[in-house]
Write a structure and sequence with these properties.
There is one protein chain. The chain has helices at about 10-25, 30-50, 60-85, 95-115, 140-150, 155-170, 175-200, 210-285, 290-315, 320-325, 325-335, 355-375, 410-420, and strands at about 120-125, 125-130, 340-345, 380-390, 390-400, 425-430, 435-445. The chain has 3 domains: about 5-245, Rhopdopsin 7-helix transmembrane proteins (Up-down Bundle); about 245-315, Single alpha-helices involved in coiled-coils or other helix-helix interfaces; about 325-445, Histidine kinase-like ATPase, C-terminal domain (Heat Shock Protein 90). The chain has 13 helices and 7 strands. By secondary structure, it is of the alpha+beta class. The protein is elongated, with a radius of gyration of 32 Å. Helix 1 runs antiparallel to helix 2. Its EC number is 2.7.13.3. Pfam families: HATPase_c, HisKA_3. This is histidine kinase.
Length: about 450
Amino acid sequence: MNVDAGVAVPLLGWLSSGLAAVALTPRNRTARALLAAGVLLVGSWLCEGAAAGTDGASASGAFLRVLTDVLFLGGLASVVAVLSTYPDGRFDRAWTRVATQVLAVLAVLGPAAQLVGSSELVVGGEPSTAAPNPFAIDALTPLGAAGGAVVASEPAWLVLGVGMLGARFVRSSPADRRELLRPLAGAGLLAVLLVVVVTSWVTDTAVAVSVPLFLLALGLFPVVLLVGISAQSRRLAGDLAASRGRLAAAEDEVRRSIERDLHDGVQQQLMALLSLTELAARQLRRDPVRAELTLADVRSQARDTVEDLREVVSGIRPPVLADSGVAAALESRLARLPETVQVDADAARGMRWPPGIEATAYFVACEGVTNALKHASGARVRVTLEGDPDQLVVEVRDDGPGLGTTANGTGLAGLRDRVESWGGTFEVRTDAPRGTLVRARLPVGALR
């Protein structure tokens, strides 16, 4: 880094883009990381200027030099977080989350190790600014060297971030790839311009426009990210409106289905029971024996009506779900299915989650099994339920031919709406001939 007023332009671009992104979508992790990157990079630039104007051998000068590196590395870690979660704010793999967390820790530990173990400290990585470190401890020289290696690895952090973005691009659907292509192209352009700048420095070839052009591209890159975050926000708003419409339509259909079940089944049975009781009342005076037989029919039909009513109620929310939890409810429901359907709920047995979370997981599993039996007849189906106090995860996996073009049918779309209404994530992966995976992750934290 050079303390140059021209650097202020791209830094302000990062800061203003971060502010705009957070104002637009305050709960989006990518937007918050973009703002953090802008704040930390601007803070690093200001500290670098202050450090250059102080005596490097003094305590304040040493602290400013180390703080400059902490803020700059923290800014780079935030940039990696932006690239690994762009544009929806979600890590699509656990290792990307861990990697960004490790970088955030190294951003502090690396410069701190230099403060206690390096005999000299520099400003912005420039050897010409080296000054004695008043806090250096000879016995901790290896620690200082390790800290210096961390600080010197700054370019690798950016390469890692771009690599995460590229991996996300490869794993994404064609529609999502179009959104990810813009920042990838921007990163490629920055890499080309950086090569031109470095080449001009190494070869002493004067390229008058290379540095200003690189700084301009660097300042426009967060604007590209902001455009993507804004587009994602508008798409999510549209999806939310459509999802609410589908949920309302689904609830209306459920009500009509319950009405039909009650009218065509239970109501007719109750009417028959009423007729039989009236008949038994008339027979009681004339023929008590026949009245006793009629009352036996009443008892039998009453039991059948109770069972039918339980079936209707079970379709809404089975009593065992409220009484014993989702693990017991799934085992009870799926025990009546063919032996090819297996349930692994040991990791969730005895645990409880909010009623809405449990009901959503229950219906995801039931609908997933129904789809598997319908589209993969004879295939082995495995339902897995696991979780902890913070989340509940349900998976339905089969080894059939895959759903193919039916993978986004209305039933699964309804499940996606239901899961996302609780702040969860819903995933359907189908890969013929290895079967289909339906997974829902329901975070309890979204309710807090």
